[in-house]
User: Which sequence fits this backbone?
């Protein structure tokens, strides 16, 4: 299960005390999410400026994806983490994780393992800006 379900968190996934005004709803817990739903939800969270939620939904898909797709979803979860670090002002974390995500994504592309629902150009462009 995602760490966000363990305790209250703010909009950017930072732990906050229960009852704090900054508590923000987390991504719904589930054991399975399809590639289509994960991508759609992730993009919805992205346009709503919720990068931690992007990370969480892509991590959920990574955990349940068939083996050939796992490195793609891991790269996307890391993209969400890099976006989260950027939003939190952690440039070092942002750069490190974005570079890891780029490497994983390139490998998945080379292996032809990117689900067709994913707009790789959007991810690649964003990672280039974050790295």
Assistant:
């Amino acid at each position: 299960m995602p760490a966000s379900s363990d305790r209250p968190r703010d909009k950017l996934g930072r732990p906050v005390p229960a009852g704090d005004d900054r508590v923000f709803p987390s991504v719904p817990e589930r054991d399975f999410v399809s590639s289509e739903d994960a991508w759609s939800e992730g993009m919805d969270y992205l346009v709503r400026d919720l990068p931690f939620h992007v990370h969480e939904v892509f991590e959920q898909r990574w955990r349940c994806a068939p083996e050939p797709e796992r490195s793609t979803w891991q790269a996307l979860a890391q993209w969400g983490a890099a976006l989260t670090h950027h939003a939190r002002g952690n440039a070092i974390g942002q750069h490190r994780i974005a570079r890891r995500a780029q490497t994983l994504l390139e490998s998945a592309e080379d292996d032809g393992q990117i689900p067709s629902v994913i707009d790789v150009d959007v991810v690649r462009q964003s990672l280039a800006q974050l790295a």
